[in-house]
Amino acid sequence: MKAVLLTGPNTWHIAEIPTPTPAKGQVLVKMAFAPINPSDLSFLTGNYGIKKDFPVVPGLEGSGVVVASGGGFLANRLLNKRVACTAGAGDGTWAEYMVTEAGKCIDVPETIDLRQASMLFVNPLTAISFIKQAKKFGADAIVMSAAGSALAKMVLFHAKKSRLPLIGIVRNIAVKEALKNEGFSEIFALSETAIFDNLKEHSKNYKRIIYFDAVSGGVIPYKILNALPDHSKMVIYGRLDLNPTEMQPQNLLFKQNTIEGYWLSKELKGKSILNVLKDISKIKKMLKGGFETQIQAAFDLENTQNAIEVYTNNMSAGKVLLKL
Fold first, then answer.
1. How many CB atoms lie within 10 A of CB 227?
2. Cα→Cα distances 55→39, 101, 211, 255, Å
3. What's the CA gap between 204 and 230, in Å, rounded?
4. DSSP 132-158
5. Contact 149, 316 (CB under 8 A)
6. DSSP label at 97?
7. How far is the CA of 248 from the CAs of 146, 171, 231, in angstroms?
């Protein structure tokens, strides 16, 4: 079978490798689509939290059809079904076939397109978690960087239902203009003059803000935090900027703000199967209701390099998929 084979950090090629055979409790999925996520880009560089021995096939999530079972009730139940799936301990989704644990697959109805199903796990589950965190924190508003991303739009969908204002932070005026009718309570562009003063003034409308940050590196994320009310919380969920972090101590010392990290994989390990299935049920209802993640392009496996470049250069335009 054809697969993207990662042989070292940022070193990969299209290779012919043996089609894997599922063991008991596992299934073989004939992959249909797999998205490129920021977490996938991080995995390619070797900077992701999940470490696998080289050579390895990357790809954290995708969709396809189960064509073989290694045995066991869950695996046998999925045979010949369309599924959304995540990678197991071995090779990932950027291949024509993938073996994964049956518990990492969710069957999807015919009414849900396999392109949308390929993005059923990472962003939707993260968005649901962010809303839960905001409610638990008692936030009366959410601030989110990379507000043009597919994840941000999904968070916005749930925030509207929860009547939580979502304030977006984007890189430039063009992205701000593109998002102005999406339903954000306010959008600030980093290229604007006096953005931090304007954000600080706007934030006075709220008492308790939770700030989800995808950037982490440099000084900008901490300037944003410093513009928010005292006792706000910053949750770092990504590392789009690999430069050293330049945190401003006054955020913690005088404003009594807090900073913590969020990693979906770790959260899922602590969740019961029942709670995960409840969240998946919410996602299925959302997709059946017509919500779709914007897709800007789909590329064949042989054009993976082009796919990565298109996504990296314009994440705000929508997801890029690998067609497998």
1. 21
2. 18, 20, 37, 47
3. 10
4. HHHHHHT-SEEEESSTTSHHHHHHHHH
5. yes
6. E
7. 21, 21, 15
Q: For the chain, which domains are there?
A: 2-119+293-323 (3.90.180.10), 126-265 (3.40.50.720)
Q: How far apart are CA 287 and CA 114, in angstroms?
A: 11
Question: Which residue type, as a one-letter code, is found at position 62?
Answer: G
The vertex-147 CA angle with 144 and 152, nearest 5°, equals 80
pTM of the predicted protein model: 0.86
Phi first, then psi, for residue 223 (nearest 5°) are -70, -35
Task: Give per-residue pLDDT as tens, 162-201.
Answer: 999 999 999 999 899 989 889 999 999 999 999 999 999 9
Q: Count CB atoms within 10 A of the CB of residue 143.
A: 29
> Could you please report the per-residue DSSP string of 184-219?
-SEEEETTSTTHHHHHHHHHTT-S-EEEEES-EEES
Task: DSSP letter for 104, please.
Answer: G
What percent of the chain clears pLDDT 90, i.e. is strictly above it? Answer: 68
